[in-house]
Amino acid sequence: MSKEMVTALDALEQEKGIKKEIVIDALEAALVSAYKRNYGQAQNVEVDFDEKKGDIHVYAVKKVVDQVEDDQLEVSLDEALTINKAYELDDEIKFEVTPKNFGRISAQTAKQVIMQRVREAERGVVYEKYSQYEDEIVTGEVSRRDNRYVYVDLGGVEAVMAKQDQIPGEQYEPHDHIKVYVTKVDDSGKGPQVYVSRSASGLLKRLFEQEVPEIYDGTVEIVSIAREAGDRAKVAVKSANPDIDPVGTSVGPRGQRVQTIVNELHGENMDIVEWVEDPAAYIANALNPAEVEDVLFDEEDERSCMVVVPDYQLSLAIGKRGQNARLAAKLTGYKIDIKSETDASEFFEEDENVDEAETEE
User: Among 145, 268, 294, 335, which residue's Cβ finds the most Cβ atoms within 10 Å?
Assistant: First the structure.
């Protein structure tokens, strides 16, 4: 071993952020095993690596005892006192036992250990770096794709985006630069794995924070998001400041703020609605753009309600393939049954007839 090793360790720390102490500790532990394996020794040994010179020394560590029973592990008090009169019982003394040809073995061991620890430390650095990005947006470059994933190079790590995390209809080609939302960083045995998404509601929230300063600083708060990625989303917002219009602020002048987000998501439609404390008013807002005549709550299930809309608004309230009603239900957390005024009248007439019949009986 030589100063070349010290130089290599310094370079690893500077270029890859791998602390020199981590590699040295691993190297010393591996050299202890190598010494015992190659020289058939079972005694308690330590290996010391000189960080300045790159020299390696092997020491047998022996305990000071009254009577020696195992000379590989123990040394008598009398012998210890000939070395240094300050030694006492139970002290430990190091005797250098570095073999003459240990340099070759240590070089081979060092190479193996350093490569292994470099891989482990690099994985640790990557995990530590990207675990901080959980629930955040990062920009990456599409590197490749297969039947399971789109692989996104984040610069130092390749993230994976599963099919359910991709926006339907979007095409991801190599070298495309895309914004993705980090959903999870998993520190598995094979190394850290970063999972990203374009379909998660968290992506939409972070995009609004990027485009709307009032959302970023908390003046306007996103209360809830319901999203069918690539098609349509509903976002409920509120503000504690009565002078702030949370919907208008989020949409921006001439719709510029929300349009930037729509463009990033390749045309995904956005409904920005105001969250209010009154559940009926909130549910009516959530069914935007449909007009709502009344919201009636189920007495037996407080999270269920019937929404009455004008006859000509029924299809708009329900939406294409039920999407508007479905998103409103997800946004508010209520089970919503939408009826036209005509259907609602018939429904209540039937209820009245049933009640009358039960009374007569």
Answer: 268
